[in-house]
Design brief:
The structure holds 2 protein chains of 2 kinds. Chain A is an all-alpha fold. Helices cover 80% and strands 0% of the residues of chain A. In chain B, 84% of the residues lie in helices and 0% in strands. Chain B has 7 helices and no strands. In chain B, helix 3 packs across helix 4 and helix 6 packs antiparallel against helix 7. Chain B is flat, with a radius of gyration of 20 Å. Classes of the chains: A mainly alpha, B mainly alpha. At the A-B interface, helix 1, helix 2, helix 3, helix 4 and helix 5 of A face helix 1, helix 3, helix 4, helix 5 and helix 6 of B.
Chain lengths: 176, 171
Amino acid sequence: MTSLRNIFLAFFKIGTFSFGGVYSMIAFFERELVERRKWITHDEFIESFALGSMTPGPPIVNTGICIGYKLHRLPGVLVATLGQAFTGTVLAIILAAFYLQAKDNPLLQSVMKGVAAAVVGLLGSIIYKMAKKLVTGYKSVALAVGAFGALAIFKLNPIGIILAAGVLGLILNWRR
Amino acid sequence: MEILKLAAILFVINGLTIGGGYAMVPLLQKELVENHHWLTNKEFIDAIAIGQVTPGPLTVMNAFMGFKVGGLLGAIIAMVASYLPSIIIVTLVTRHYLQYKESWIVKGSFAGIKPAVVGLLAAILIFLGKSSLTSVPLGAVATVSFGLITFTKIDPTFIIIGSGILGAFLF
């Protein structure tokens, strides 16, 4: 089992540098946990993210909990959650205490504009790598394209799309 | 006592809402601003903005709300109450998932779910790109960050810091 200290450090790093929202965090998870530390595979990451999105609560926090459990059971869950939220929580408290007008600060807005653009590139790269690994064969291509269209064009509910894909997967892979 | 009431509200909302931090916003607004008057509408909007500009999950905005209601202790209680439902539910779900992972039912449905999640993320990428890449230099930042993370082993930390500094000077 992965040591609790290392789990905390990895999630602390993710929680400290992943500016730019949920999708920045996805890129950090993938780079740090899959590619660098090799604690989980691409496959397990997608699996965790799917489970995290289907359960109540914030999906990215749930994804971290799911990975934490795989790495070190319940203690892994607690350490991963603490590490992931630590820096953001401390900063939120400091901002609340001094009541800084973070939102209206023009410098911060410019910084976040640059970060938001970089996050688009990060997420694009992660999707490209995931697709190469996971979207192979005509069935999975059809499912990926179908899910893409269902959200991008028809704006269907993403949870509904995931559930429908699960049912379709079950039918396509019915025990033969 | 107010802080315990806030904790109970956060616990229930986090335990029942599927679909992410933003799905909770209208529920939180109704309880915290309209029903209990712990925050003004402006403070509530600031809390969301703070959740967005801080690194890590959006839900750290709950620490900001907790601080407004009950100081430092309030912030800590708010975070624990927000994450406790996830910790309980996701731990149990993961445990059962791992137990039945090799069964044909779970394997079959996840064979459908995994490529679908990749497709969903690709759709989200389009939405993000439309709202964030509003000028040519911003498009260039996205392209460079794509190239760096795809073809080199550079840590995304440097890309985030670098693009923030670039943003300060350029945009």
